[in-house]
Automatic annotation (TrEMBL):
Protein name per the record: 3-deoxy-D-manno-octulosonic acid transferase
Reaction(s) this enzyme catalyzes, per UniProt: lipid IVA (E. coli) + CMP-3-deoxy-beta-D-manno-octulosonate = alpha-Kdo-(2->6)-lipid IVA (E. coli) + CMP + H(+)
Transmembrane regions listed in the UniProt entry: 6-28
Keyword Cell membrane: yes
EC number: 2.4.99.12
Top-level class of the enzyme under EC nomenclature: transferase
GO terms, molecular function: Kdo transferase activity
GO biological process, one term: lipopolysaccharide core region biosynthetic process
UniProt source species: Sulfuricurvum kujiense (strain ATCC BAA-921 / DSM 16994 / JCM 11577 / YK-1)
Domain spans labelled 3-deoxy-D-manno-octulosonic-acid transferase N-terminal: 40-201
Amino acid sequence: MRNVVFDLIYTLVAAFFYVAALPLLILFSFKKKYRDSIPARFFGIKNPPFQPHDIWFHVCSFGEAKAIAPVLEKLKDKKIAISVITHTGYEAASKYAAQVRYLPYELWLWFWIERPKTVVVLEAEFWYLLFRLASRRGARVIALNARISDRSFSKYYRMRWFYRILLSQCDRVFCQSSEDMVRFIALGARNVEVVGNIKLAQKIESNKHYPKPNGLLIVAASTHEGEEEGIIRGFMAYREHNPSAKLLVVPRHPERFAKVGELIAKTAPKMTLSRWSESQMITEDITLIDTMGDLNNLYAISDVVVLGGAYAPIGGHNPLEPATFGCRIISGMEIFHQRELFKYVSHVQFTSVEGIAEALKNAETMPPSQINGSVDLKKVLNYLTEK
């Protein structure tokens, strides 16, 4: 009875926020980035419930959608459904043999979730009504690759009464590390087990070969707002030491390509600039990578990677991909979402944006980065395939 009352209160609060946000939702739905996701998630447009399936994976975005590939590879005999939050997640998930949907806003889950069998929620996608309704309608609910960052735990712990209710709907928590396990238990989770980070099981490879230019090739990878200018200035300072070096700038979000191109031209007006979409050749001082899907191919021919998402409070990005290709990695300090993955990667320099030029000099004599670690998916797969 207590949970039913809480469900009602939570739904009413969700309805209030939905109505309050309607003007913004309508406005943002016209932006290219949200043109598909907002109509699908908040208005149900072209987003019907799943057809009957065996296992439903819920991921947030591109990284999580890619991370489940090794698991799906072992579940080829199962009917798979995947829900996502972002449009990049949708594109990545659509490459699998699976039904793919945007996860509706929680208010609409009452009408959207039917009778799932097993629901697997990736990382930190803790939506109360997703857990509650899936469990109430007969599904096993599993948290996979579950994590709570150093930065987030204090906030979670202040709300532990809420997470105790949410996690009580979860049948099993497969978490990334022993630190995560302690945090989940402190929040009231049961059946918690450490299996490691499933991203260690990813098959990372290039699918196209590009010629490597002469001189040191540096990639500023998956950069965010507020990071590119500092990286470019660091590169300019380094060029005084190594005039033949070249820089590739790869913004994380495609809607920023034009803006970043203008920023490069303004910040480094004396350097030559090309756009990857025009020639796919690395001949100029700086190349803006304004297409999607080529990052691993560029890692394969690069010497040094300045990994974005860590010079702004984003939480960092996956270091396993550049490490697979032996790139020397430079990262900022804000890696709170990727701290566990960085434990498996050797020869990484952590620096402020002001220290990038010096880090680039140091990279000349550093050994290539490499991955030291693995993950055993047998426990996860055995549990998923139990009757």
